[in-house]
Amino acid sequence: MSKTNDLSMPVRTDQRSCYGPGGAEIPCAGTGQDGDLNKGRPWPEPRFEVDGDQVLDRLTGSVWTRSANLPGFPLTWAEGWSYVEEMNRGGMFGRSDWTLPSRSRLFSLISHARINPALPAEHPFVDVFSGYYWTGKGVARYPSQGWYIHLGGGRVFKGMKHGSYMVWPVVEPTSLKNGTDTGAEASDGVPPRFVNHGATVLDRSTGLEWTRQAGLKTGAVDWHSALEAIRFLNAQKAHGCTDWRLPNVRELESIVCLDDHSPALTGGHPFENVEATYWSATTSVYEPTYAWVLHMDDGAVGVGFKQNKAFGAWPVRDGNETLSSCR
């Protein structure tokens, strides 16, 4: 395993079920689906700790307002920023460090086993609206747009900043910020985010190792064919490894750098033949005949119909910080 700080690893999803071609639940063992492998940083028990009007997420160290609708109504992106600034001037709940959440921080709250709202079971929050919530991150390619996340189902998309959506203030520990929102290039003694091992590439910000060829040579496939192709790679010991997997939605989203676009990967990345969209191993429980996908132009997270041969498959595995452990 990589020596990467565990707090930088993508958060595990809470999906524990697996699904057949028609969307019915099936036994998970050997499927390679998210519910089978359960990869990522595990959740603490209990995950949330309530302190009056605030809630500590023990998984990320973030502190959220217990009310997910403190303003009482939707706000524009600029109004959202003004609202948290006013909270800080007034020392709301004894604090002056409230902010709009980064995309990665708000995404970390999303459940991939529940909908309406898509929040973890037994969460302590109140006034949750099953609609779009602003993040504090703008869209690199379109400065007039900002990122928001749908609390009904978990979709991560972008909209005009003059639109009105919900605002959920948070206090974010800066030490936990990962590469999802920014990425890291080599400069002023800072090592590069990606380490090129030839046929594979280590992402030092997460400890995950990806194939340098960003997808299968067959191109777009349907979801079940993507899972089958990964099993074939392992049977063939591709690049000397037998532990490749289709990334779950959090692992797939973690490759994104939101300061870059077309593709949304850290500038100077070593990957080849980056495709437009990729399958994750995570099913959409909103409609189990769909799975979560990543759009590489800007980094949006949506869904795709599993039977469509429309998306790529990008193998990933747990990495090693010094050299490719496949060799």
What does this molecule look like?
There is one protein chain. With 327 residues, the protein is an alpha+beta fold. The chain has two domains: 48-176, Mannose-Binding Protein A, subunit A (Mannose-Binding Protein A, Chain A, Roll); 179-318. The protein is built from five helices and 16 strands. The protein is globular. It has a four-stranded antiparallel beta sheet, with no helix packed on it. Residues 1-5 and 175-180 have low confidence and may be disordered.
Topology summary:
Layout: E1 18-19, E2 25-26, H1 34-37, E3 48-51, E4 54-57, E5 62-65, H2 77-89, H3 103-108, E6 132-138, E7 145-150, E8 156-160, E9 170-171, E10 194-196, E11 200-203, E12 208-211, H4 223-235, H5 249-253, E13 277-283, E14 290-295, E15 301-305, E16 316-318
Antiparallel strand pairs: 1-2, 3-4, 4-5, 5-9, 6-7, 7-8, 10-11, 11-12, 12-16, 13-14, 14-15
